Amino acid sequence: MFKPVNSKLNVTEMEDAVLKMWKKREIFKKTLDQREGAPEYVFYEGPPTANGRPGVHHVLARAFKDMFPRYKIMRGYRVSRRGGWDTHGLPVEIEVEKKLGFNNKQQIEEYGVAKFNEMCKDSVFTYIKDWEKLTDRIAFWVDLETAYVTYTNDYIESVWWILKNFWEKDLLFKGYKIVPYCPRCGTPLSSHEVSLGYEDTSDPSVFVRFPLADSPDTYFLVWTTTPWTLPSNVAIAAHPDVDYVTVERKNEGVTEKLILAKSLVEKVFRGEEVKIMDSFKGKKLKGAKYSPLYTFLPLEKSAHYVVLGDFVTVEDGTGLVHQSPAYGADDMEMAKQNDLPVLLTVQPDGTFIPEITPWRGVFVKDADPLIIQELQARGLMFRAEQYTHSYPFCWRCHTPLLYYARESWFVRTSEKREELTRLNKTINWVPEHIKDGRFGRWLENNVDWALSRERYWGTPLPVWECANDSCKHRECVGSVAELSEKAGRDLSELDLHRPYVDEISWKCEKCGDEMNRVKDLIDVWFDSGSMPYAQWHYPFENQEQFKAQYPADYICEAVDQTRGWFYSLHAISTLLNDQVSFKNVICLGLILDGEGRKMSKSAGNIVNPWDVLDAHGADAFRWYLYTATPPGQERRFSSDLVGEVIRSFTLTLWNVYSFFVTYANLDNPQALTVTAPANDLDRWLLSELNVLVRDVTKAYDEYDVTNATRPIEKFVETLSTWYVRRSRRRFWKNDSGSDKQSAYSTLYTALVTVAKLLAPAMPFLAEELYQNLVRSADETAPESIHLAAWPQVMDEFIDESLNREMAAVMKLVSLGHAARQKANRKVRQPLAEAAFSVGNPAERAALLKNADIVQDELNVKRVRLLDAAGEAVSHTVKPLPKQLGQKYGNQFPAIQKAIFALDAEAAAATLLSGKPLEVQVGGETFQILSDEAEVKTHAKEGFAVAEDGAYVAALVTALTPELIAEGLAREFVRRVQDLRKSADLDVADRIELFVEASANLKAALEAHADYVQAETLTTRLSFEAPPADASVVEDAFEGEKVKVGLRKTNK
RNA sequence: GGGCUUGUAGCUCAGUUGGUUAGAGCACUGUGCUGAUAACGCAGGGGUCACAGGUUCGAAUCCUGUCAAGCCCA
To answer: Which of the pair, A940 or A300, is modelled with greater confidence?
Structure first.
């Protein structure tokens, strides 16, 4: 006996019960214990931060993270899934600053870094309970008890070890980074802050002559909007593939030559007649020397020559770009590539340094007109104007921002660009375009990783520097032991955070001065990217675990992680081990609200995941996320869309399940294993089922979530609306024959298999079905569906031609219904005959073989094939463009026309007999083969016919008195069934019927008494007045009147 | 400004190497069926395949450009 199943499903109650069962029996733990020694499938959890509440986008990621480990467990793998928490970084600091009412770093320093960091640490897990609750409720199986935490000393020590490794390979260095900087506030701004402050503003637009070193009266013509950066000029950039020209013109009586991009000549000279002397590609200019405009500062490296860069455009200016590495990011990048000097001319307050003698102490923006005047005086200014463009201002104080070089630490990732790209090519990206697109491009254009942050709460950069300016000896520390040794005391109890680690110092081995830690922290992305190592405190501990858990088979995050975790994992692994750290990755699209807008607090359109979970449960939530859109696409989301899953999918499956259990409990069928069923419906269902197993398994193996889920939906629909619908009577039969057994076994197999296929995606529903269908009958079966084995494809059950035939039968039934509707003949009225036309002999056979199904479904007495001569139909011939177009190319339109001009019936007959059709086009004869044109069948006027392509259904609509009587009986049965239902009878209850009916109806009921009694489980049918204790209904239909009384009996 | 992605019915999505009249589900309307069903069947309305060019006998599909949205970078 199975546990009785209510056809009304309460999803949340069911899920709660399953959650309790999992917890009580420790099923998650058992997925590990029972797979001890099995091959490892490695999953890495990208650590979230727990200082904010989890939202729907977290449910999205966690749903996708969960399904593959579940699948792999069922495939026999061992999957340890360790959780993790990202705990450092600016967002944490900002929360604490808010709490303290701070808005700058000085306030933090005054408050005390120790106290500040203590608060950061405390706030990190503010919402940990929310996270745990949600993770549990959505059934994301991850081990949070042993989760790694990035702020622990062990974790930091592993990160230090990685940095030391980079240091030793000379991959860690100090350089300059260009940051948007507010000279009044004295602080760099984050990109978010910068985007707050863009405004249209008027700046100088100047064209400057740079004299060539060895050609008199010849100049590079260079355009800039920041004259104040000219004193720090070190080079001019040209595009290697752009055409440049030398033009000749008169300037105050002297003939001068100017070099600029060819396409900009007209724009620059504004119609002035100039003579083009010479034309060449930009790459020819490479290395050309010019005389510097200013020589205020000494040069450590060679400078003042032309360099080549792809970033140069010819939209504005002259195609020659002035290079000032300290004050432009492109410029800094060029300086690195070409080993140019970096000239620092501006002080932190935005004024020129004393060495810039003419303008010392002047704010740079105020110096612009002075510099322009000075260049005009020297005859180097070609043109100076004003120019309006969008420029960032400080959102706090409205000062124009400067792009400003700050000292910063870098990881030399650009040196490993090729390795990064090569290894990336071996990763399976879903969706695929990320590999060579977004991520691949990013790697190809890789610049050194700006690692350091001038903040407080994070992993300190383990670099110590000698205080003596002329020594500047630096050391990188790779472990606590090493630090202890250098400091000369045991530091194993030291908190590795600031300010404690800052207090550690020792004597410089070079000069004896004091070695102090540089004050920087490192980028939090370096923390999370180190997790393959640091989660194990590798290499200080757990070397074996690390080996077994590296690299990951699977990771999954949203697309915004391309430059975040995906990159940091990949970069660190490449630089450290020259190996990938993940083999498969699903990159999720972002989640939008129901209107397609981004969810944001300010728009007030955030969906609370708990609202969805409380209303529809976790399975439907998950299922929606898997099936609604391919993973990489952004998706609209609303609670209502999730509710749709319950209606269209969950309940359909649940009702098939409930149907099975209800009747199985009445019948107690014996064996529920399938062998070789004789019934076509069973054979067909098992064939479709195994196709499903095959396809879903393949999709899981390819990380194709859409195709691992959507086909199940389709199958369940067909299971419900065709298999069960057409098999219902087989379960009602009173005997216990083999056909009934076969039906039970088949349906049982389908349900259990579907539950297993569903388990990784809908873990609750799958478990509920499994516990009742499998565990209640077999205590030796695995304790949970999530410990059970994944279904095997049984190829011997797959019969593709059977599947096609059944599809044709369904199609014909559908046309039969359409024909009935056209003829205005309701289904309850039996008709004498339905005749069909089909596409090929196999389908003809299939129709005849399944005639009983078709008869029953359409309520007709006979099913037959339409004769080719076409009693009810006519034909046309439709040329098939695909075949004919490919074969005859541009002759196709003429051939098509010729085919249409033929006598349609004759042409159709030719093709149907398998002979080629001959057409004449312009004196040429073409042979049209039978697979190059389609014969279409059409209804003749006046017949009850429905058609679609080669398929036709035609009904004989004439009614005989016998058919009418049978129709009346069926109408009557319908009334009785309704009465049974409203009297709240059980499906198996037997009844007595009392009927008072008008003459025709009474005659019909007498003629069909057996049918009526069998259908309604009536043990006694009497034409008497109903007794007082009977349920009674009166009705009239088809001109007949009836009064029916119904009474439950014990027989 | 650059890179990547997306744009098909009111909504959510399919649409294969270019090829028949661009499909499905939801929603809506009508109708039928029903002792598993919260369903289901049949039919109907609903489309400038974002827009404009181009290639081709033929374009939702390929190419170029434009527009819109999103993400990342500058």
So the answer is: A300
